[in-house]
Description:
Chain A is mostly helical. Chain A is built from 29 helices and five strands.
Amino acid sequence: MPRRIASTTRAACFWVVLLSLFIMPAVYAKSVEPAGELMIHNFDPETGKRIIPNERCLTCHGDEKEKSDVRDDGSPVKIFVHSEQIEASVHGEQSCTSCHVTIDRVPHREAPKVVVGCIECHKETWDQHKDDPDGKHERLKVVNEQIDNFMDSVHAQPNKLDQSRTNATCYDCHEAHNVGELGSIQRAEKRLKNPEVCGRCHEKELEEYRTSDHGKAVLEKGDSESAICSDCHTTHEIASPETDKAKLAITKNCGDCHEDAQRTYFDSYHGQVHRLGYTNTAKCHDCHGGHEVKSADDPTSEIHANNRLENCRNCHTEANDNFLSFWPHSDADDRENYPTMWFAKRFMQALIFGVMAFFWVHVLLWLYREVMDRFQGKGFIEDLNHPDVVYFRRFPAVWRWIHGLFAISTMTLILTGTTLLFSHTDWAKTVVIFLGGVEMEGIIHRTAAVIWLGIFLSHLVIAICNIWCKRDKFEWFGSTSMLPNMKDLRDLRDMFKWFLGRGERPQFSHWTYWQKFDYWAPFWGAAVIGSSGILLFMPEKTALVLPGWMFNIATLIHAEEALLAAIFLNSVHFFNVHFRPERFPMSTTIFTGAIPIEEFKHDHRLEYERLVAAGELEDHLVKRPSRRADLAASFITSVLIMAGLALLTLVLIGLMTTPS
Amino acid sequence: MQRDDTMKKKVRNLFLAVLALLPASVLAGPSGEALSFTCAGCHGTDGSSVGPSMPAIAGMDPEVFVDAMKAYRNDQRNATIMNRIAKAYSDEQFKEMAWFFASQKLHLFPQAHDVALAERGFKLHEKHCEKCHENGGRPGDAGTLAGQWMPYLEYTMDDFLNGKRKWPRKMQRKVDAAIADEGQDALPALIHYYGSQQ
Amino acid sequence: MTDINRRTFIRAAGGVAALGATLGFPSLALGATRRVVVIGGGVGGATAAKYIRKLDASIAVTLIETKPSYTSCFMSNEVLSGERTLESLTFGYDGLRRYGVEVIRDTAVGIDPEKKSVKTAGGHSFDYDACVVSPGIGFKWETIEGYDEEVAAETVPHAWNAGPQTTLLRRQLEAMPEGGHVIIAAPPNPFKCPPGPYERASQIAMYCKHHKPRAKITILDPKDAFSKQGLYIEGWTKLYGYGTDNSMIEWVGAAGGGTIEELDPTTLTIQAEIEEFQGDVVNIIPPQKAGPIAFAADLVDGDWCPVDKRTFESQRHKDIYVLGDASSAAKMPKSAYAANSQAKVCAAAIIARFNGLEPGDPTFVNTCYSVVGEDFGISVAAVYGLNSHTNTIQPIPNSGGVSPANASPEIRKREVSYAHSWFKNVINDMLE
């Protein structure tokens, strides 16, 4: 230091001598007035703020020879910006200081804080120009939507280690000096750069991504079509990967490219639950891996045959080898690859179609006939002025209870089951939320299933006991037996004749053929739904004895058969019992246990005559049910009918809106 | 010129509106012009000094002006007399004077200089100084160097080198580099370069 | 930009705009050219003439001055030391003419405040809408027996208005024998250029130090203190052995009998209050009063002219403004810078009045440099505002003052350089 002072002092002496020779009485010298504007014109007259032209900034920041500088603390800092890039970017017409708002002096008096407020400017500019006819600022609408998304994202949250900043902000990702217009080269390059940009903070994830098929395509082959970070994580709506929001978004975004995989996934139990908005079942990245996703051929892939079981065991901790034959993406419409599924689905659909077609024709014709009879003053018309006072005892209390519980548990099963089957619908999501989430729903479904099966079995026991007690005189094909007989076939034929006006309405015994069908149908249902349900109830136990693809089959037929039951019960059964004009609006017999004697005579004339002839009628006659019992039965029946119709509506909505 | 006129009109209208609205007390105190007129005895009429030790302040950057005056007032800048004078003014008055001088044209006066030395100074300036003192040191946010009085520049550089005035950011590095390039001639060369400009 | 806010900007820009307004309004509104007559081409008069034209070129300004050119008193002590010539202090009025000021060489002898007209010795009369009187000082010869204008011109110069007497005093110093005795009699307050007598002593000492090192300088002073006293004594001590037996300069204050009563011009003997002083060169600076025209025009109250400090309008006659040394403008000193500062306040006030506006609040500055010796400059500075209730000009508190005591040689040296630049700028601001 002293050396320099000495040298400068010498220098000063040297030129002071020089100067003293030159300096002339300036008073007399002619002055020179430099051209150019007044200093005051470098300031905005409205705000008094300094106007700093971009060229002034680029004097230092655009100097290719000195692209870096040192900070006050001696650390190096890059200061170079590409002026050509800026000019070509969407911000090309902006002045540096309109974004770098803290810069009010050039040269900077103190180390400038890089504070850039993107949001307010984009919002204000959009507010100003949104009604412009030229549409020049149209893109700002999207920008503002993305701003809103960003503000809700995890990136806009305060950083956990340093609350003075957010996790990430606009210019961490956007190279603001190089934001290209739609379709520009910058934007194409931006896709390829995206992993590196995210990787600046998410270093581990980037390393994983590099090894993935996506990463290799993008980073090594320059394929901008392959998935980059923002394709899965979105650009602005980014949530912590621990959140349901992120998990749902990522799975959804996988499907943007892998459409078939997503469709078949949503057909599976995993996918159905996921589509309801819950993330506790397997998602794409649970099986395929997230950042390191690779094809099944790759031995390091999570879905490689050698790794797959371990993968399943992440959730199904006791999974055995049989799990490996489960088809996570089975497609029942793909006959080539999944013939079993294909066949099962065709069979079930044929069954549904056949049953429903037959009975709906039966319903329609019956309706037609009764309506026609009414017009002609025929048929059974209740005399409301002189209601029956004598009733026929048709159901003992135990059967009434069993039917009631059976109805409630069936409806519960339909409601909870179809939410999965129709997980794409809004109602399903609402119902699940109402029920307390998908796990609670599972509990309800399984509980209802146990009750349902329990009732079914109890009924069998009671029925067998009854038969056993009457074993001496029980006629297997007698009038009170549920077993179908030849008369049922003849009745069916005669009914159709009657429907078509070619004969009289047949006379029925104690049970009509449609009642017998309603009775026997659950036997088939219980077998199919019950057994498939039990398989699915405890997959790890099932897999001890059955191959994994049985889950696929079970899922399929459980759903299809349930669908058949749901539609049949809530349409055909309701019509036969409640809605045909003779009974409309409802029959409460199943809850009162008693049927008006006139009605009994009309529907079961053969039995009536048989009982009269045998002198046993009196044994079965009861008083008209009390007013209270009648009201209660009407209420319960109404509720169940309405619930059933509601379920039918939901099922039909679901069927009609099922994505193809 | 058109733009100038409309701007002046706009500013005048604004001024008249403000005058009409504000109670007299708000505008009490000497005007910026009156305050600035008192400087002329030392800094020349409207700030174009003719005395070689007194810097020209006409056309000066207003923020540089305010910075300088505040520094003088706070005894943070080596002074002979300005520290005593600056203590008489408020921040607001500094600003008003700053705007007055920013609104003046700077009249420069020829100064005797060594042409060869000035040429060397020009090269040093281009290499080390131009980025902050742009356009050869024309008035700006880094002060006024071009055409500034050479003895004043000498005093200023002496103050910097002798630690009597705080270096602006990065300036010391640049001056050191210039001295490394040209040795003891560096500062005289630069000062002759600035003095040579008109 | 955080510091310069919008209101300041508007005020600043508005000042420019208001200026623009004054350029347009007067002739339109009143239909006649306004006339200002300025009496006296010193700092006050010249500055006022220039600034009136600068601020409003529609006003006709006539300057009446006896002398063909202006010779500055400030820096004229450097003539005594031989540092500069009287010519270097002399300037013409062409600069003012370039501003459109009509410069008349004549002597104003009376002002008719009723007719608003100035009469000159040349027999002319000049009508005015506003008259600026800046006559400088006159001397109270009657206070010192044996001293009059004639003696001053020939043997005992006061040299207090730069001119032939300055040259005479310089010649006397040159002719003085080695070991000679110089007496400077300082005047009582108030007087023009309060540090002047002491700078004069310093400059003479500087001359003697090189050419007559055994010479003595005695300052006879009717005061017990004087301007920049501490700094002068510091400089004298450092440069001229003050305080030692060999001191070149001796100061005799009032208590020491520095008040003079009588001069014997033949023997160059001064009778002071206590003792007699005999010198080889005697310089008496007599007590002062306003210049003659101030008395002729009935502008004085006592020795000086009372004025309204906001405008410098005479408190005795309307539309007559008195500037500079002649006005009683305490607490401003009678200095060039003060006159320059007052002239601009007065110019703006006259223009405001012409436009029917209230004159704005005035602000004043005084800066005054003294060169005590080689590389030893000192200064005093003050910024003043108006207390309109008491009609007094008062320094802004906690500002101004003299150069620091015991400052570094570098600072003292710079102040010499600044003194010379200051001189150029004051001259420039009044005449160019």
